[in-house]
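ok trying this again, last paste got cut off
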Amino acid sequence: MTPAYQIEGEDRPGRWVVTCDHASNRVPETVAGGDLGLPPEDMARHIAYDIGAAGLARALGAALDSPVILSDFSRLVIDPNRGEDDPTLCMKIYDGSIIPANRHADTAEVERRLALFHRPYHDALAGLLARRVGPAILAIHSFTPQLKGRAPRPWHVGVLYAGDTRLAYPLLAQLRAAGDICVGDNEPYSGHLPGDALDRHGVQPGLPHVLIELRNDLITSPQQQRDWGNRLAPMLDAARKNAEV
């Protein structure tokens, strides 16, 4: 069976651990025969994964000389950025699309997917962090320019955080100083989501952490992903040094 995650650059010496919870739109064969019943155009949308986020995470890992861990299953299979008791863990409808294979997913099926995908990903991330000295977590996500029936989102980059602002505040300052980036401060979402991946691996154990959301129309190509990775990396390192973590 294909592992639930990929790790790149595990031996890189950088202080960051880059995570990408929604890296893939893959539906494993062990879930509904590899087909959730959605048309290909839906599986290519943000509802199935974070468009461009995997390439950006890899580019940042290379630029920061730090390891990267990426999920290898769609968020529609089971969402690794949700706690095990979160009602949105296994979505039945998302941004107007019904997910047929999830409509009748009962407690036993959700538990099976947790055991196959969600828990192995989190165990691997916990292990990666435990093997490093003084790690800082960089979570990479992307967001759609506009949800159905909602207002357009103007931000290029969002910085998300909960109570720990050690990295978030200096990173916000770096981004604003660039002058040409529309920056979201806990936009387009709040960074406070109890039980999510950063809460579990950053907030609760007290590790320094920050989450970047990049608007997905800005990172559709590999070149755009590399360009943003190279642009963000020095800002992140400056923020880490400013925070003295």
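PB: full thing came through this time. The two ends are 38 Å apart (CA to CA).
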